[in-house]
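Reproducibility note. Readers wishing to regenerate the assembly model reported in the main text can use the exact inputs given here. Chain order matters: entities are listed in the order in which they were concatenated for prediction.
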Amino acid sequence: MQRRDFIASLLTEDPKAKPVSAEQFQNQTLPTHLNLGVANISNYTGAWSDAQVKHLLRRTLFGFNRSDIAFFKSMSMSDAVDYILNVPSSAPNPPVNGYNNANITDPDIPSGQTWVNGPDNNNLTAQRRLSLYSWSMQQVLGPDRHIREKMTVFMHNHFATEVDNVGSPILAYRHHKLLRDNCVGNFKNLVKSVTSDLAMLIYLNGYVNSKTAPDENYARELMELFTLGKSADSQYTEDDVKTAAKVLTGFRINFSTLNGFFDSNAHDTTNKTFSSFFNNTTITGKTGQAGAGETDELINMIFTKEDVVARHVVRQLYRYFVYYVIDSNIETNVIIPLADIFKMNWEIKPVLSTLFKSAHFYDNNNVGCYIKNPLDVYASFIKQCQIQMPVNPVEDVHTSHLLIWQLAAASGMNLGNPPNVSGWPAYYQDPQYHELWLNSDSLPKRIQYVVALMIGVNYATGKKIQADLIAFAKLCSDPSDPNVLIQETIDLFYAMDISTTQKTGLKQSTLLFGQTNDIYWINAWNDHIANPNDSAKKTTVNNGLLLMVKYLLDLAEHQLA
Amino acid sequence: MKRKEFLKHAIPAAMLPFFIDGMRFQAYAATPMLKAIAQASAKNGRVFVLIQLNGGNDGLNTVIPLDQYSTLSAARNNILIPDTKVLKLNGINGTGLHPSMTGLQTLFNNKKLNIVQAVGYPNPSFSHFRATDIWHTASDSNQYINSGWAGRYLEDLYTGFPVGYPSSSDPDPLAISIGYSVSTALMGPNANTGMAITNPSSFYQLVNGTVDPAPNTPAGHELTYVRLILQQTQAYNTTIKAAAQSVSNKATYPSNNTLADQLKIVANLIAGGLKTPIYTVSIGGFDTHSNQVNATGGNETGSHADLWKKVSDAITAFQTDCEQLGVADRVAGMTYSEFGRRIKSNDSRGTDHGAAAPLIVFGTQVNPTIIGNNPNIPSTVSVNDNIPMQYDFRQVYASVLVDWFQTPISTTDSTVLNKHFDTLPIFKQGLGIDVLQVNSQQIQLLQNYPNPFKTITQIDFWTTGGRVQLYLYDHRGQLIQTLLDEERPKGANTYILEGSNLPPGNYYYQLVAGATQLGRPLVKQ
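Running the prediction on these inputs yields the following structure tokens for the assembly.
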């Protein structure tokens, strides 16, 4: 298959693919009867062993390998959290043309050069979108030990836009760069930046919002999703949405230069008075370019409802990093204290730092209860098994990472294109939340695709992504001991253990090839090590490992982090 | 509330176009018609159960060559089964079964058991893993194949698998492995054709809609959720559950017998109407390097005796169950092990890795006899001496494929076994004629009937018209007689072989029609 066909086939819709409802098993009410652990954000003072290190990494990184565990274990808990939050200030290199092939040649941008500086090319929109997705996956799958990608995806979910609807791949890139560059920065500033971001202006119709017929789309989501939320304490009115829409009139885009500008003729210059929820605040209408400044006033006004905004955003963070159940105890003793930190200056880092260093975060009841999102599933497997993704040439980098993006998309998480402006339902839909990642369509895929990555998946003719299980086994402390091999793999893959009966059955049917004595694996492994070039001995060992890992990937435990 | 315009296009959430290693588009050697016939008959409900004896079974203490008893006793005195305890078989002199195989003795005497002597392959491997691979992939000793023989058969039969399966016409699993992993014999060129039923308890959980209990914590809450969906989304869950619930086992299975636990499920699913043609089950512990017999209490006791009691009792209960459930005539099964063991025993009352060994096939439709001769035990046996093979294990597979599943020989040769292997008279003859009659466009050579024979036997064949030759060879490949050399009409033809003068032994007959050459074995008693 030529690469062109491969790409084309990526875009072919399968009419049979239809998620099947798993509703009968999902939460009918929020499971508040569960013990959610000690509700206390004071510093965790317990052990800092593998279990705690891995819990932190499972929640803050897209996957990790054994050396990452060792790296963080050598630090104190506090230093480890600080390291993870200390996101580098330099942005990653932008996406490049990796999409040239026998049939498509970018007339402006040579292979390996970035296309984000323009101009847009309507004939290459599809290729550049794919390039953006692939590039996003390169960041997710990179060796970075910081929280940047997890937080970028959080922001992408929070300030959701769809690349498909934005249109211009360049504007979509700029939008994602804005989110990534500010992912652990000042939240209030980010809200201001997002409000005038061109992709967001397109996505929520801000660029056509005018005084003659205000479009409320952005104003509504600004309040309902991005800042205030819809909890009981968020009492803005329908009129407030309409009034905010008037404030936001006049922003326009020059689509040939891809620059934004303020059209004062389209701006509503009347005074805008809000409800009692906002203390009847009036934003004075301004003419000329000064009209654009009203937006800042609007956002400042919203942020005066500091408890409402801070608690809404902290709840979002909590559901993204810890668990989705927030009962009154968690609200009072975790959410509100974190929100109090947040509202001091709207910096994200102190909130995350307190959360990830808290007694609550490391409580056993919060370990292993997080249903992985599709990115977690594929990224964690790739990193745990230390699967080598191509690093050159650019075409291979592009296509291989695009394949992983496609796996996640087919599993219900299309990075770049969340279902709508609310983001992914797993992070807001009460009472199912994370359980929504799994249904009878997505769960078999999650298993099947990970197994495919293990066995080997072709991303282009004759080129594949594949796990080297023998190399993987060699990273164990004693790969010749089947018990060690199984236990250490479980410890790496799972947030919990499995029963001794299961481990024995697994061992006998895979590493021991149906026998009962450990000597069968010990001999097979040692035989391979002594004769590394003997393909039969290598195959024997590899077959045992394939069966063993396959079994572990099939179990429910693999879906949890 | 107007959120925004939903412009839904371009993004697929679909089947992935990726290619698992080894994927290929199959070119079928057989004609569409042959294939249709094979499918019609194979999906007719015949079932074959593969019972793997892990570790390498000591064939000489399983099917005991009583006519070699003195040399046997010299070679393995410390594990020798007392000849008075060896179980006799009706109509058979000089060969008996291990004393714990009473159930299988009864099956033989009731004409439901076939034994094939000394099954192996040239240049045997003495590694468990490599030997198991060879058996499962049906490769030569020096050949490495990534797919299993049964997987190749099933993928050929179920066109396009796994895309589009299960479907309304093929709702059932192609194969079921009871165990933690799917047998490598079921690995097809494109996908694994088998599904695993991890263990008996997970099977009964599936039937009852329960899952393993989880702690009452957030993690336990989600674990239960995932397990419930997992159980529901096993592609074949619904049909398996329905099959299991539609009937109950009728026979009593022995307790504390893992093989019986597995076969009980198999009988339940077959009788419940699952059209799954192949099941694999297994039992381990046959690697009897030491203490294969007890130090005291007699050589007929010990780990090997216990294992065979389990296997014998389990198969017997399964056979009884199948009969009482009314499915016995479409069920057969066989035991196999990756190798036999050395002729000479070692000092720790055990045996080391060997070569060929007998194999047992059971069912109401088997040819109730022993195929092949007792192995010849030399008067002096060195530690390295092995039982030489009389039959290639792939002849057994070919027999299962051609005579039981009625797969066209061309498919068996080209797609499944990668070369031609003569079949053995393991099954009652004539099982497949009704199907082959449809196939008048093809040249076919049927198994002679009766076989083995004493005086006369009938050889049926099909030709496309024109001159044909029928030759008879002895077991060394030497031409004995040209039976036929003449013009024959298109369609069914018969040749009656008058063989009362032939010395008893194994023969081979060959049909030559134009460029086509087909052969089959023939046994004179």
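We highlight two features of this model. The longest helix of chain B spans residues 303-324. Residues 210 and 228 of chain B are 8 Å apart (CA to CA).
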